[in-house]
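Batch manifest line 440
LIGAND: fe (ii) ion
JOB: complex structure
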Amino acid sequence: MIDLMIRGVNLPDGREDCDIAIVNGSIDKIAPAINATARDEIQAVGCLATPPFVDSHFHLDTVLTYGQPRINQSGTLLEGIALWGELKPQLTIDAIKARAEKLCHWAIARGTLAIRSHVDISDDRLLAVQALLDVRRQFKPYLDIQLVAFPQDGYFRYSGSPVNLSRALDMGVDVVGGIPHFERTMSEGAKSVTALCELAANRGLPVDMHCDESDDPLSRHIETLIFETKRLGLTGRVTGSHLTSMHSMDNYYVSKLLPLMKEADVHAVANPLINITLQGRHDTYPKRRGMTRVKEMLATGINVSFGHDCVMDPWYGLGSHDMLEVAHMGLHVAQMTGTTEMKQIFDAVTRNGARTLGLENYGLAPGCHADLVILQAADIHEALRLKPVRLYVIRRGKIISRTQPATAMLRLGDEIFEVDFSHATNVRSSISCKSPVFRK
Ligand code: FE2
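JOB STATUS: finished
ARTIFACT:
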């Protein structure tokens, strides 16, 4: 017996009018017009069904602290770090949890079912670690949360970080983090990369570092990260987050760097909303965009995914945790407007992110977890353009979020009609999802 049948959806690979049969929390079959009955059924003819969005880089401990104790006046990364330092003594486990829980609710409603969150360990009380371990446990049935032990104030620059980072890993944090560009010198930064990669190798853990989040083209810690990945046999388990200095690097040097990155299978994570906000703040004009070389990395065969990074915190005052907003910004900043490029951008917030996080059984294929999102849009192009309503969010075959279709009615003179923002030919059906009532 089929538990849930989804009728008539379009898929990210371009297939149209498909049915998806779900049994025991997994996808059983995807085909046109499946001749079978199911316990529950969603009519979503003409709507796009996609695997869930993946946020490859976030900070659940700093989220929703905007304005506490004040707003970042310069808009720079460094003032943001100082501001967070001012707030740290006032943190409580309950307050961190409450903010993180609220964000997780937003994420689920937006169709994001996996988040890799960095957690600041440059605080001897490790309150954020305790809080986010609880949140990870609480949301496990609904949301995959990975935690990265992140020495916000530097691994060597803050003397307590080495001990705290090991303690955090002992407590169950999943990934080793770092921030080499914030260490006191370039050589200290390189040493921190080596020390942290050795720690990860010894413990059998992945690495995800804030790496070269700077406009300084001479910030080249990615080079050391690639070298240590190869030396320590960490191939495929290491991620370089941000990599914004690459925006400003000499083209010749980058032409050497990218093949080395590909060879070591180092994943790259760009954070378009934050990169375009924080980088280039010291420029007059021309003003650099700052985002790393997404298009060139993808052309080299490097796995690139996107993160939201921040929502209403010392570094960024906006956001509602929408990975389509991230993709929309990334598309613009990277100037990836071609049809194939838009598909690559969509991948950066879905399947590429799943690869960065090492998620198993992710995707729309028989045998995969029945985790998917149905959008009020006909295809990827429309999803990126409209950032539409997530009509249904499904986890292991169960509907865990529902949002009513958005409709606007116009009265122009005597005529009253519905506005349709879709460009697709099957416009009407794409916005008329007949769904079962969301039962309590
Ligand atoms: Fe970050």
